[in-house]
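Posting this for the archive.
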Amino acid sequence: MKLLEGKTALVAGVANKRSIAWGIAHALHQHGAQVALTCVQSASRRVRKLGTEIGTDIVVPCDVRDDAAIEASFDQIGAAFGGKLDILVHSIAFARLEDMGGEFIAVDREGWNLALEISAYSLVAMARAARPYLVNAGGGSILTMSFVGGVRVAPSYNIMGIAKAALESAVRYLAYDLGPDKIRVNALSPGPILTSSSMVVDRFDDALDATRRRAPLLENITAEDVGNVAVLYASDLSRMITGYSIRIDSGIDILAAGSGAHPRAQEGKPDDS
Protein backbone atom coordinates (compact mmCIF):
# COMPACT_ATOMS: atom_id res chain seq x y z
CA MET A 1 0.00 0.00 0.00
CA LYS A 2 1.40 3.38 -1.05
CA LEU A 3 0.45 6.07 1.46
CA LEU A 4 1.51 9.05 -0.64
CA GLU A 5 0.21 8.19 -4.09
CA GLY A 6 -0.49 11.37 -6.05
CA LYS A 7 1.18 13.69 -3.53
CA THR A 8 4.01 16.13 -4.19
CA ALA A 9 6.92 16.62 -1.82
CA LEU A 10 9.93 18.85 -1.45
CA VAL A 11 12.87 17.51 0.56
CA ALA A 12 15.34 20.25 1.47
CA GLY A 13 18.84 19.41 2.60
CA VAL A 14 19.92 16.32 0.68
CA ALA A 15 23.71 16.20 0.69
CA ASN A 16 24.67 12.61 -0.13
CA LYS A 17 23.45 9.02 0.18
CA ARG A 18 24.24 8.93 3.89
CA SER A 19 22.15 11.96 4.75
CA ILE A 20 18.89 11.65 6.65
CA ALA A 21 17.23 13.81 4.01
CA TRP A 22 18.08 11.23 1.36
CA GLY A 23 16.61 8.43 3.46
CA ILE A 24 13.40 10.44 3.70
CA ALA A 25 13.32 11.35 0.00
CA HIS A 26 13.77 7.70 -0.93
CA ALA A 27 10.97 6.59 1.41
CA LEU A 28 8.55 9.25 0.16
CA HIS A 29 9.25 8.16 -3.42
CA GLN A 30 8.69 4.50 -2.54
CA HIS A 31 5.27 5.42 -1.19
CA GLY A 32 4.22 7.15 -4.39
CA ALA A 33 5.13 10.81 -3.87
CA GLN A 34 6.61 12.90 -6.63
CA VAL A 35 9.71 14.36 -4.98
CA ALA A 36 11.68 17.55 -5.63
CA LEU A 37 14.99 18.29 -3.93
CA THR A 38 16.83 21.40 -2.83
CA CYS A 39 20.46 21.52 -1.82
CA VAL A 40 23.42 23.85 -1.49
CA GLN A 41 24.96 24.91 -4.78
CA SER A 42 28.18 22.97 -4.15
CA ALA A 43 26.25 19.69 -3.89
CA SER A 44 23.93 20.22 -6.86
CA ARG A 45 25.76 17.93 -9.29
CA ARG A 46 25.88 15.09 -6.77
CA VAL A 47 22.24 15.57 -5.76
CA ARG A 48 21.11 15.64 -9.40
CA LYS A 49 22.63 12.19 -9.83
CA LEU A 50 20.81 11.00 -6.71
CA GLY A 51 17.59 12.45 -8.07
CA THR A 52 17.66 10.03 -10.99
CA GLU A 53 17.35 7.17 -8.47
CA ILE A 54 13.95 8.45 -7.37
CA GLY A 55 12.82 9.54 -10.82
CA THR A 56 13.15 13.28 -10.37
CA ASP A 57 14.96 15.97 -12.30
CA ILE A 58 13.56 18.72 -10.06
CA VAL A 59 16.72 19.61 -8.15
CA VAL A 60 17.00 23.27 -7.18
CA PRO A 61 20.02 24.82 -5.45
CA CYS A 62 18.83 27.10 -2.64
CA ASP A 63 20.70 29.45 -0.31
CA VAL A 64 18.55 29.47 2.83
CA ARG A 65 20.29 32.62 4.08
CA ASP A 66 18.76 34.57 1.20
CA ASP A 67 14.97 35.15 1.28
CA ALA A 68 14.90 36.01 -2.42
CA ALA A 69 16.63 32.73 -3.24
CA ILE A 70 14.11 30.81 -1.15
CA GLU A 71 11.18 32.51 -2.90
CA ALA A 72 12.72 31.82 -6.32
CA SER A 73 13.25 28.16 -5.44
CA PHE A 74 9.63 27.72 -4.41
CA ASP A 75 8.42 29.54 -7.52
CA GLN A 76 10.35 27.02 -9.61
CA ILE A 77 9.20 23.99 -7.64
CA GLY A 78 5.62 25.24 -7.44
CA ALA A 79 5.53 25.66 -11.21
CA ALA A 80 6.86 22.12 -11.68
CA PHE A 81 4.10 20.77 -9.41
CA GLY A 82 1.24 22.75 -10.94
CA GLY A 83 1.07 25.30 -8.14
CA LYS A 84 0.52 22.73 -5.37
CA LEU A 85 2.68 21.13 -2.70
CA ASP A 86 1.58 18.50 -0.19
CA ILE A 87 4.75 17.88 1.82
CA LEU A 88 7.76 19.96 2.87
CA VAL A 89 10.66 18.25 4.59
CA HIS A 90 13.24 20.59 6.14
CA SER A 91 16.46 18.72 6.92
CA ILE A 92 18.93 21.59 7.16
CA ALA A 93 21.43 22.31 9.91
CA PHE A 94 24.86 23.89 10.09
CA ALA A 95 27.36 25.14 12.64
CA ARG A 96 31.03 25.96 12.42
CA LEU A 97 33.32 23.07 13.27
CA GLU A 98 34.96 25.06 16.07
CA ASP A 99 31.55 25.43 17.75
CA MET A 100 31.00 21.67 17.87
CA GLY A 101 33.48 20.74 20.57
CA GLY A 102 35.04 21.94 23.78
CA GLU A 103 33.03 24.27 26.01
CA PHE A 104 29.75 25.75 24.82
CA ILE A 105 30.54 29.01 26.60
CA ALA A 106 33.24 29.69 23.99
CA VAL A 107 30.74 30.25 21.18
CA ASP A 108 30.87 33.79 19.86
CA ARG A 109 28.11 35.97 18.43
CA GLU A 110 28.98 35.09 14.84
CA GLY A 111 28.84 31.35 15.49
CA TRP A 112 25.56 31.72 17.38
CA ASN A 113 23.87 33.77 14.65
CA LEU A 114 25.10 31.51 11.86
CA ALA A 115 23.91 28.28 13.48
CA LEU A 116 20.48 29.61 14.43
CA GLU A 117 19.88 31.33 11.10
CA ILE A 118 20.63 28.26 9.01
CA SER A 119 19.39 25.56 11.38
CA ALA A 120 16.24 27.17 12.81
CA TYR A 121 15.17 30.34 11.01
CA SER A 122 15.40 28.61 7.63
CA LEU A 123 12.40 26.48 8.64
CA VAL A 124 10.32 29.61 9.20
CA ALA A 125 11.43 31.14 5.91
CA MET A 126 10.74 27.96 3.95
CA ALA A 127 7.36 27.42 5.62
CA ARG A 128 6.37 30.97 4.66
CA ALA A 129 7.40 30.39 1.04
CA ALA A 130 5.68 26.99 0.92
CA ARG A 131 2.43 28.17 2.50
CA PRO A 132 0.53 29.25 -0.63
CA TYR A 133 1.39 26.01 -2.43
CA LEU A 134 0.33 23.92 0.57
CA VAL A 135 -2.91 25.91 0.80
CA ASN A 136 -3.54 25.25 -2.91
CA ALA A 137 -3.22 21.54 -2.17
CA GLY A 138 -5.86 21.81 0.56
CA GLY A 139 -3.31 21.59 3.37
CA GLY A 140 -0.37 19.32 3.98
CA SER A 141 2.54 18.37 6.20
CA ILE A 142 5.75 20.17 7.13
CA LEU A 143 8.45 18.08 8.82
CA THR A 144 11.81 19.12 10.22
CA MET A 145 14.67 17.24 11.85
CA SER A 146 15.53 17.75 15.51
CA PHE A 147 17.65 15.95 18.13
CA VAL A 148 17.40 15.35 21.87
CA GLY A 149 20.32 17.77 22.33
CA GLY A 150 17.71 20.51 21.99
CA VAL A 151 16.08 19.55 25.30
CA ARG A 152 18.97 17.96 27.20
CA VAL A 153 22.71 18.53 27.24
CA ALA A 154 24.57 16.42 24.68
CA PRO A 155 28.24 17.20 25.40
CA SER A 156 30.00 18.76 22.39
CA TYR A 157 26.71 19.27 20.52
CA ASN A 158 26.89 22.80 21.92
CA ILE A 159 25.43 25.50 19.67
CA MET A 160 23.46 22.94 17.68
CA GLY A 161 21.56 22.09 20.86
CA ILE A 162 20.49 25.73 21.12
CA ALA A 163 19.53 25.73 17.45
CA LYS A 164 17.42 22.57 17.85
CA ALA A 165 15.67 24.07 20.89
CA ALA A 166 14.79 27.11 18.78
CA LEU A 167 13.71 24.84 15.94
CA GLU A 168 11.32 22.84 18.15
CA SER A 169 9.81 26.05 19.53
CA ALA A 170 9.36 27.33 15.97
CA VAL A 171 7.54 24.08 15.14
CA ARG A 172 4.95 24.81 17.82
CA TYR A 173 4.38 28.42 16.75
CA LEU A 174 4.19 27.46 13.08
CA ALA A 175 1.73 24.69 13.93
CA TYR A 176 -0.48 27.31 15.62
CA ASP A 177 -0.28 29.76 12.72
CA LEU A 178 -0.77 27.22 9.95
CA GLY A 179 -3.32 24.94 11.60
CA PRO A 180 -6.34 26.82 10.20
CA ASP A 181 -4.88 26.21 6.73
CA LYS A 182 -4.88 22.46 7.49
CA ILE A 183 -1.10 22.49 7.42
CA ARG A 184 0.53 20.29 10.07
CA VAL A 185 4.01 21.02 11.40
CA ASN A 186 6.02 18.42 13.31
CA ALA A 187 9.63 17.60 14.13
CA LEU A 188 11.20 14.16 13.86
CA SER A 189 13.89 13.64 16.48
CA PRO A 190 16.05 10.62 15.65
CA GLY A 191 18.60 9.06 17.93
CA PRO A 192 22.24 9.05 16.81
CA ILE A 193 22.64 8.09 13.15
CA LEU A 194 25.93 7.65 11.35
CA THR A 195 26.06 10.41 8.72
CA SER A 196 28.83 12.55 7.27
CA SER A 197 27.80 15.40 9.59
CA SER A 198 27.52 13.33 12.77
CA MET A 199 31.07 12.06 12.49
CA VAL A 200 32.43 15.49 13.49
CA VAL A 201 30.66 15.36 16.89
CA ASP A 202 32.97 14.37 19.74
CA ARG A 203 32.23 10.97 21.31
CA PHE A 204 29.61 10.16 18.71
CA ASP A 205 30.69 6.52 18.72
CA ASP A 206 29.84 6.43 22.43
CA ALA A 207 26.29 7.56 21.63
CA LEU A 208 25.90 4.81 19.05
CA ASP A 209 27.24 2.25 21.49
CA ALA A 210 24.94 3.44 24.29
CA THR A 211 21.86 3.05 22.09
CA ARG A 212 22.97 -0.40 20.98
CA ARG A 213 23.49 -1.58 24.56
CA ARG A 214 20.89 0.35 26.57
CA ALA A 215 17.85 1.12 24.42
CA PRO A 216 14.87 -1.26 24.75
CA LEU A 217 15.10 -2.27 21.08
CA LEU A 218 18.89 -2.85 21.35
CA GLU A 219 19.49 -1.41 17.91
CA ASN A 220 20.72 1.80 16.35
CA ILE A 221 18.53 3.92 14.11
CA THR A 222 19.06 4.28 10.37
CA ALA A 223 18.08 6.93 7.84
CA GLU A 224 15.66 4.36 6.44
CA ASP A 225 13.91 4.17 9.82
CA VAL A 226 13.52 7.94 9.84
CA GLY A 227 12.21 7.83 6.28
CA ASN A 228 9.53 5.36 7.25
CA VAL A 229 8.33 7.57 10.11
CA ALA A 230 8.41 10.57 7.77
CA VAL A 231 6.05 8.73 5.43
CA LEU A 232 3.59 8.25 8.30
CA TYR A 233 3.66 11.91 9.35
CA ALA A 234 3.56 13.12 5.75
CA SER A 235 0.50 11.00 5.02
CA ASP A 236 -3.15 11.66 5.79
CA LEU A 237 -2.96 9.04 8.57
CA SER A 238 -1.46 11.75 10.77
CA ARG A 239 -3.88 14.50 9.77
CA MET A 240 -4.77 15.38 13.40
CA ILE A 241 -1.19 15.50 14.76
CA THR A 242 0.64 18.81 14.78
CA GLY A 243 3.15 20.75 16.86
CA TYR A 244 5.05 17.76 18.24
CA SER A 245 8.57 16.38 18.31
CA ILE A 246 8.52 12.64 17.67
CA ARG A 247 11.35 10.54 19.05
CA ILE A 248 12.79 7.87 16.77
CA ASP A 249 15.42 6.48 19.10
CA SER A 250 14.93 2.77 19.73
CA GLY A 251 13.21 3.78 22.98
CA ILE A 252 16.26 5.15 24.79
CA ASP A 253 14.44 8.36 25.72
CA ILE A 254 12.26 6.50 28.22
CA LEU A 255 15.25 5.51 30.38
CA ALA A 256 16.13 7.24 33.64
CA ALA A 257 19.53 8.85 34.07
CA GLY A 258 22.17 6.34 35.02
CA SER A 259 20.46 3.37 33.41
CA GLY A 260 23.09 0.83 32.50
CA ALA A 261 23.21 -1.72 29.74
CA HIS A 262 20.02 -3.66 29.12
CA PRO A 263 20.25 -7.06 30.84
CA ARG A 264 19.54 -8.71 27.51
CA ALA A 265 21.99 -6.62 25.52
CA GLN A 266 24.14 -9.63 24.67
CA GLU A 267 21.10 -11.37 23.26
CA GLY A 268 20.29 -8.51 20.91
CA LYS A 269 20.92 -8.82 17.19
CA PRO A 270 24.37 -7.63 16.14
CA ASP A 271 24.36 -4.03 15.03
CA ASP A 272 27.33 -2.76 13.05
CA SER A 273 25.82 0.58 12.06
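DSSP finds seven helices and seven strands in the chain. The chain has a mean pLDDT of 93.
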